[in-house]
Amino acid sequence: MKFYFVDDDKNIRTILKILVTERNLGECCGSSGNGDDALEDVAALHPDIIIVDLLMPDMDGISFVEKARKISPESACIMLSQVASKDLIAKAYESGIEFFIQKPLNAIEVESVIRNVLKTLSMHRTIGKVQSLFETEFSENGRQSDNPSPQSENFQSRLTNVLQKLGIIGELGSKDIITLITWLHDRSETLEQQTLGRLLSQFSENPKSVEQRIRRAASTGLVNLAHLGLEDYSNDVFTEFSNTLYNFEQVRREMDYIRRKSDKHGNVKIRSFLNALLSYCENV
C-alpha cells in the first residue's frame, strides 16, 4: 500500500514516514507541507492512504480531502488535528475521511488506525472481485449485467460507512451484507419480496452458511451498540442506530445482559435489520 502525508509540520511528516516504514505498513510515495502541491501529487501518484492535517495554511484539511477524493476516489484519508471540536470532527467525517486522530500523535494509536484502514481497503477490493463474479454468474443465467453506476458506488460507500460505525466492517458477514444490500438497491427490491434463503441461494451454493455469517455480524453490531450506550447514552452512533437498524428494546436487553441484570441476550431479526439497513442507506 502507498502512503502520502500532508502536514505543514515537517517533524510530523518525518514521524509518519518512520512509523509506516519501521512497522512494515507500506511504502511512502510522497509528502507535502501544503494542500495545493499535495493535490498535484495525488493526481499523479494515486496513493492508497493519505494522512492529512486538519489545520494548514492556505487550504485546510477538510477542503483538501473533498478535492482529493474527486481526483483519487479510491484513496482513503486519515485526518490529524489538535482540535477536539465535535462539529469540526463531524465535518471531517462528512468530507469523506476514514478516521480522525488527535494530536499529539500516539504511535500505537496511529498504527492501529492504519491497520484498520488497510483492512477496510483490502475488504473493498475483495468485495469488488466478488461482485464481478456475481455479475458474471447473473449474466450467464440470462440476467442483464451492468457496470456499477456512480449512484451504486455512492450507496455502497454509505453502506460501508454504517458498518464501520457499528464496528462490524472486519466481520466476515459484512462482505455478504454489502453484496446483498447493494444487489437489492441496484434492482430496487426489498426482502419483503422474497425469502432471505431464496435470495441468498442466488449468491451461494450454501445459503445457510451465508445467513449465519450475516447473523453473527448483525449480532456483533447489537453488542457493540449496547457497549456504546453503557459508556455514553448520548453517543451519536448509539442514538442513531439503536432505534433504526435495531429494536431499542433488544438493545436495552443486551445492555442489561452486559450489566448482569439479565441472563438473556438481545435478539436481532435479520430480515428487519437488513431491510432497515437498506432503507437507511437509501435515505441518509
TrEMBL record:
Keywords: Phosphoprotein. The keyword Phosphoprotein applies. The modification 4-aspartylphosphate is found at D53. Residues 2-118 form the Response regulatory domain. The keyword Phosphoprotein applies. InterPro entries: CheY-like_superfamily, Sig_transdc_resp-reg_receiver, ST_Response_Regulator, YcbB. Signal peptide: none annotated. SMART domains: REC (SM00448). GO terms for biological process: phosphorelay signal transduction system. It comes from the Bacteria. May play the central regulatory role in sporulation. It may be an element of the effector pathway responsible for the activation of sporulation genes in response to nutritional stress. Spo0A may act in concert with spo0H (a sigma factor) to control the expression of some genes that are critical to the sporulation process. PANTHER family: TRANSCRIPTIONAL REGULATORY PROTEIN GLNL, TWO-COMPONENT RESPONSE REGULATOR. This is Stage 0 sporulation protein A homolog.
